[in-house]
Design a protein that fits this description.
CATH class of the largest domain: Alpha Beta
Order of helices and strands: HEEHEEHEEHEEEEHEEE
Number of strands: 13
Oligomer: single chain
Strand content: 25-35%
CATH topology of the largest domain: 2,3-Dihydroxybiphenyl 1,2-Dioxygenase, domain 1
Structural class: alpha+beta
Strand order of the largest sheet: 7-8-9-6-10-13-12-11
Distance between the termini: 20 Å
CATH architecture of the largest domain: Roll
Number of helices: 5
Number of domains: 2
């Protein structure tokens, strides 16, 4: 399957869905457990028909759905098609989506020696020291956030080496940044916005608000 570009995904007009990092995400506001369970069952039937299976999380007030073509490591037309079908089924049941709600947190660690650090963090986070794929430590069970290694020059000066990457919908990023600033944060660097904006708390600890735009 061919990976879709960011613009192709935006042009698909998926009102309920937003791409964060590699996958499509949607939250459907079911309001109660029984309605959510019925929606999950319907999504399962669609997935079986399509031969393509999303990740689904059922909680009391909502259902979160993630779509990704794992064999292509990104979003393809089959994800777009299944997203449309899921939205249609939710709409038939009167279930609205909250496209501003999805978020993905990733951990980033600056290092000049991925080979030395990778196995340790893979073993610690996943229990498997070999769970390193390039610059990423990914838990196949989805229990912990993805950790990625940001290549830097070797350094001895103490500095913050961990930071959070918060992926949010591209049309929700400005509001999230404004909320963080209003809560005492500062914008450290917005030269790469809207791709990412670096923020800091009152003590200088940093995080990046990331979107899919201009990548």
């Amino acid at each position: 399957m061919t990976l879709l570009t960011t613009q192709q995904i935006l042009d698909a007009g998926l009102a309920d869905w937003r791409k964060l990092a590699r996958a499509l995400h949607a939250r459907f506001l079911t309001g109660d457990f029984a309605t959510g369970l019925a929606l999950v069952t319907a999504i399962g039937e669609l997935a079986e028909q399509a031969g393509h299976h999303p990740d689904v999380v059922l909680t009391y007030p909502h259902v979160d759905v993630t779509l990704l073509s794992h064999d292509a490591s990104g979003v393809t037309e089959r994800d777009i098609d299944l997203a449309r079908r899921i939205s249609a089924v939710a709409g038939e049941r009167g279930i609205a989506a909250d496209p501003a709600a999805p978020a993905v947190v990733e951990l980033a660690l600056d290092t000049a020696d991925v080979a030395a650090l990778g196995p340790f963090w893979a073993a610690l986070l996943t229990g498997d020291a070999t769970a390193v794929d390039g610059d990423d430590v990914a838990d196949p069970g989805g229990r912990v956030p993805l950790l990625w290694f940001q290549h830097t020059d070797a350094h001895e000066t103490p500095r913050q080496r961990f930071h959070l990457d918060l992926w949010v919908p591209h049309d929700a990023a400005e509001a999230r940044i404004a909320a963080a600033v209003a809560a005492g944060g500062t914008v450290v660097d917005d030269t790469q916005a809207p791709s990412f904006t670096v923020l800091a708390d009152a003590e200088g600890n940093r995080a990046c608000v990331c979107t899919i735009l201009e990548r």
